[in-house]
Specification:
heterodimer, A: 244 residues, alpha+beta, Immunoglobulin-like, B: 451 residues, mainly alpha, 3 strands, nucleus (chain A), transcription (chain A), YEATS domain-containing protein (chain A)
Chain lengths: 244, 451
């Protein structure tokens, strides 16, 4: 009797989760800070924006319901919630501190929030003392939100989303394959964001090629060592025979 | 408090009935006068829930002296004794009337009903090749006398039988008689003797095992404990490896490690360091399996977080020094410790790279051991201790220098090569590929000349 109940989808029980699928949402989060120049005051010397965006500037609203930015307690209402994309917050201030960014997802994606931390940087490293109104200080970090066991509904919803990657693992488990290709082309990105010119490109190709080269080197050395070991063993055996 | 803990009574006494609840707070202030304060404090300052001794009774005087109590030395009889021995004891006499009734301890004189069989019953059911009629009779007689204390009976009997044999004979006889005398089999099937007959072989074995364990020396005990611990570890590793079969990451690593293992096995079958090598990857495979299993349990996680977990799991089997060397090598190769763009593929590649570096380091260690072995077979005049390589380049340099050193037999070569080794050490910036081929050619030449 229990088995029958389990096979039928119970409307109240959680939706079926797909075990072989992994949904991965590449995001970039960070801060951009502009020096205010002549208009700067003691307490408000910089205008900065903290944001979370999709890696290719695509819309995160499909996955993320709201984002809560926790600022320094010296701000009024340090807990700021942003209910709709673009998930960003602008403020004026003078100090650097750590911002806690909590992502709340839609119910079918995940009921638990995820928190990231980012240090707000106002002053650039390379030219201490000289600040320019035109050039902001940009610090971005790339990361991916991984949903290891997505629910069926969620997966159906985001399968064809341009910004969201889905991976399926083959039953015998070779390298997992992507279901949808992400549009890497820059022409597709939404250009209407005022700050988009400062956004960094995060491309994995660079790292991949470096990693591949490194692996090749290491593998080459492994092979060489193995050969040496085998030849050594051959020698050892012959010596042992001689001694005996 | 301690007493309460032992009794398992909840400290806050939530389930007390109402009237008792009012008592503890009252009593704690009053400090009853029956017992001393210290003794009372032993209970934790609160009165016990169920006072075992009624406090009011403790120092009460005895009952009013309506009766005269004397103690007299009187004779008594006991129904437990068959003879007419007259014994005396002190008796509490109340108003001149001695107490009546049997001796109070007579009721403890219990004996066992040993079965008595007739001759024909014996001939019909109880014939046994190992037991003569006299022996069986003696056995039963002694059983009755000694209340089935088989150890004593075994001692008493003239012929040597083990306790188990006696028991076996006794129980089988009783069983046979029981079944024979029963009106129908159903009547006695409930009797424990019928249901579970005495099993001689099992009992002997059991007692032998017990005595073995009892007589185990401390040394043996420790060894047993170690074996158990190892077996447990192996079991856990197997369980983790089983869990790994569901995860998607593991098949990649088993693919890589599996190839490595196979190659190694083909190359040298009798290498003692083989088990060393083989044991390291399985342990880290188990670790990574459990790490990825725990990651999948999370509903959502960041790629960087997951990556860190996997790195930790993979390097869990390696010591701190090895980890530092891995990181050094990564730096030399120009790879970031943490990928700047941690996509899924990048993270996987990075983990694979780390595993391969671990493999490489392992191989080098093996190589060094082999080197030490090899040189010990020679005159042992070339101590081959290279020290910790400070950079990847130096590691590669060492690969090259070992071969020429191992094949040289004469002292003249050693001087030459040691010099060359130092020279190579001092020139760190050399590209590896350019010089590796001439270096490889050199050892081959040496080998040819020597052979």
């Amino acid at each position: 009797m229990d088995q029958n109940a389990r096979s039928e989808p119970d409307p109240r029980s959680p939706a079926k989760r797909l075990k072989d699928v992994e949904v991965s949402v590449p995001i970039v989060y960070g801060t951009i800070s502009f020096w205010l120049g002549k208009k700067a005051t003691e307490t408000q010397s910089h205008k900065w924006t903290v944001y979370v965006r999709g890696a290719t500037n695509a819309d995160l609203g499909a996955v993320v319901k709201r984002v809560v930015f926790q600022l320094h307690p010296s701000f009024n209402n340090p807990v700021r919630a942003v209910e709709s994309p673009p998930f960003e917050l602008s403020e004026c201030g003078w100090g650097e501190f750590e911002i806690a960014i909590t992502l709340y997802f839609h119910a079918d994606a995940c009921d638990k929030p995820l928190t990231l931390f980012h240090h707000l940087k106002l002053y650039s490293e390379d030219e201490p003392g000289t600040q320019s109104i035109k050039k902001p200080v940009v610090v971005e970090s790339y990361d991916e939100i991984v949903f290891p066991d997505p629910s069926e509904n969620f997966f159906a919803r985001v399968k064809n989303h341009p910004a969201i990657l889905s991976y399926v693992s083959a039953p015998l488990g070779l390298h997992s394959g992507r279901i949808e290709e992400v549009n890497e082309a820059k022409e597709e990105e939404t250009k209407d964001h005022p700050l988009s010119q400062w956004f960094k490109n995060f491309s994995e190709g660079d790292e991949l090629s470096k990693l591949a080269a490194a692996r090749q080197q290491v593998q080459g050395h492994i092979v060489k060592l193995r050969n040496q070991l085998s030849s050594m063993n051959g020698q050892l055996e012959s010596v042992v025979i001689e001694c005996d | 408090m301690d007493a309460k803990d032992i009794l398992g009574i909840p400290k806050t006494t939530p389930s007390l009935p109402h009237e008792k609840k009012s008592r503890p707070p009252k009593d704690s202030q009053r400090k009853p006068d029956g017992i001393s304060r210290e003794v009372y404090a032993l209970t934790g300052g609160l009165a016990p829930l169920m006072p075992s001794i009624d406090v009011n009774q403790l120092k009460k005087k005895t009952q009013a002296e309506n009766e005269k109590i004397t103690w007299q030395w009187l004779p008594f009889t006991s129904s437990a004794r068959k003879d007419n021995l007259q014994l005396y004891h002190w008796v509490r006499v109340v108003n001149g009337v001695p107490p009546t009734g049997d001796y109070s301890f007579a009721k403890y004189n219990k004996s066992i009903d040993v079965i008595k069989y007739t001759d024909e019953e014996y001939e019909k059911f109880l014939e046994d090749p190992a037991w003569t009629r006299e022996e069986t009779d003696q056995l039963f007689d002694l059983s009755a006398r000694f209340d089935l204390r088989f150890v004593v009976i075994a001692d008493k009997l003239p012929y040597s039988r083990t306790v188990e044999e006696l028991k076996n004979r006794y129980y089988s006889v009783s069983r046979a008689i029981l079944i024979a005398r029963a009106a129908s089999p159903a009547d006695v099937s409930g009797h424990p003797l019928v249901k579970e007959p005495y099993n001689l072989a099992q009992e002997t074995e059991r007692k032998r095992a017990l005595s073995m364990i009892l007589s185990q020396s401390k040394h043996q005990e420790r060894r047993d404990a170690e074996v158990y611990a190892e077996a447990k570890k192996i079991m856990e590793a197997r369980m983790a490896a089983k869990a790994a079969q569901d995860s998607e990451l593991i098949p990649i690593s088993t693919g890589g490690a599996g190839d490595a293992e196979r190659d190694n096995v083909n190359v040298d079958d009798e290498s003692p360091s083989n088990p060393q090598f083989l044991s390291a990857p399985p342990i880290s495979i188990a670790e990574t399996a459990s790490a990825s299993a725990s990651l999948r349990k999370l509903r959502v996680y960041l790629r960087t977080y997951g990556f860190e977990q996997m790195v930790q799991a993979a390097s869990s089997s390696a010591g701190l020094r090895t980890i530092k060397r891995v990181e050094q090598i990564l730096q030399d190769l120009g790879v970031n410790m943490k990928p700047k763009v941690p996509t899924k593929t990048v993270c996987e590649e990075h983990l694979e790279l780390r595993k391969e570096i671990l493999t490489l380091l392992n191989l080098q260690k093996q190589f060094q051991y082999k080197e030490a072995e090899g040189s010990s077979y020679r005159e042992g005049s070339y101590p081959e201790t290279p020290g910790t390589p400070k950079s990847f380049q130096r590691i590669l340099d060492q690969d090259r220098t070992f071969i020429p050193d191992s094949t040289c037999f004469g002292a003249e070569f050693s001087g030459e090569h040691i010099v060359k080794r130092d020279q190579k050490r001092k020139a760190p910036g050399r590209p590896t590929d350019a010089s590796s081929s001439p270096a490889n050619k050199r050892p081959r030449k040496l080998k040819n000349t020597d052979e």
